[in-house]
Design brief:
The chain has 370 residues and is an alpha/beta fold. The chain is built from 14 helices and 13 strands.
Length: 370
């Protein structure tokens, strides 16, 4: 195939930037000319720190908030639309790939008006309002969760999975090869020590962090505490370290981790929010989880993600009100003391995972240019 010019709109949050960046890198590896379109949000800078290709800012803000905030958001969509039109006239792409969120509205509308083919990717089991509204304009809509298909009104819908960073994909592939060579299906829940990863997420982490620390305190009192890696985030790491110290629980608390591949290989299971990226990475490495959806997530999409993974047999989920320290401690003990259940969950996650999702989405983008 001759090199294409491709724009990837993936601004807003890390949950959109990371899969967009993974797909952009795959498209560049194939020899295409790729430009990232971001929304000018602070979180994007760290997410694309390693990107050395062209980058365009199409400023936009979300609809969250009161009437005044919504008015500013609508105005920002108008500005984004006009800015995207200028960019399309300056450097017209053969295809626009948009990874959802409010940041896609201006670029997608401008691309449609200019006759540029559009590919959309939806990461969650419940589509976001913006992407659901834009779906009829797309040549193809790609999904992470098949459950989202029923809510999409599009000419073509395909399940590609959730693109993840290349280093995570490579590490998971190597781990599976190693396990196959050793003749094991998955990491054993009976291995000592059992290691738990706790991830509170970037939003609403305080309550879940506190519940996890207290759950570990209960397990210490029973003489059944696992090893713990707690990814707390820069704002919460100090508080979480102090809480573990007060509870007399040994834990490795990280404010940020660049090498998540090594973390996933070290752990046996996780307690996590159910954002699309976390769900995809846990499935990629076959790590069973207790999922606690963030209750304020737009359209309650984290609950839908958690329900889809539980239905597939790869996790248990608890509503935040039910995720008490006692309930979390019980769940951890079940994962640790029931090897057959653990192995079934790990296998279910592996079956749920769509491998090489970035390559699959890149195929869709190439096909849409024809």
């Amino acid at each position: 195939m001759n090199p294409l010019s491709i724009a990837v709109s993936c601004g807003g949050t890390g949950g959109h930037v990371f899969p967009g960046l993974a797909t952009a890198c795959e498209l560049r590896r194939r020899g295409h000319n790729v430009t990232l379109w971001l929304a000018g949000q602070a979180v994007e800078a760290a997410s694309v720190a390693g990107w050395d290709g062209p980058l365009v800012t199409i400023p936009a803000t979300g609809l969250a908030g009161g009437l005044a905030a919504r008015g500013r958001a609508v105005w920002s969509y108008t500005v984004a639309f006009r800015r995207a039109q200028v960019e399309l006239r300056t450097r017209r792409p053969d295809v626009l790939l948009a990874m959802g969120s409010y940041s896609a509205v201006g670029p997608v509308l401008a691309a449609r008006l200019a006759g540029v083919p559009i590919v959309l990717h939806e990461a969650n089991a419940v589509p976001g309002r913006a992407l659901a509204a834009l779906a009829p304009l797309a040549k193809c809509v790609a999904l992470h969760f098949e459950a989202a298909a029923a809510r999409m009104h599009a000419r073509r819908v395909v399940v590609t999975g959730m693109p993840v960073r290349a280093e995570l994909e490579a590490a998971a592939d190597a781990m599976i090869v190693d396990e196959t060579r050793r003749g094991v299906q998955s990491e054993s829940a009976t291995a000592a020590p059992f290691t738990l990863l706790a991830m509170g997420g970037s939003q609403g982490a305080v309550r879940l962090n506190a519940a996890v620390v207290e759950a570990l305190r209960l397990l210490v009192a029973r003489g059944a505490a696992p090893s713990v890696i707690h990814l707390a985030g820069p704002r919460n790491a100090g508080t979480v370290r102090a809480a573990y110290a007060s509870a007399r629980v040994k834990a490795e608390v990280l404010d940020f981790c660049q090498d998540m591949a090594s973390v996933y290989r070290r752990i046996d299971a996780a307690i996590s929010r159910s954002g699309a990226a976390s769900c995809a990475e846990l499935a990629l490495f076959g790590r069973p989880a207790i999922l606690v959806p963030y209750p304020e997530a737009a359209r309650d999409h984290q609950r839908a993600n958690a329900m889809a993974i539980e239905a597939a047999g790869g996790a248990w989920w608890l509503d935040q009100t039910a995720a008490t320290p006692a309930a979390l401690a019980t769940g951890i003990e079940r994962l640790r003391k029931q090897p057959a259940t653990y192995r079934q969950m790990a296998s279910a996650l592996r079956r749920l995972c769509v491998p090489h999702a970035a390559a699959r989405l890149a195929d869709v983008v190439e096909d849409s240019a024809v």
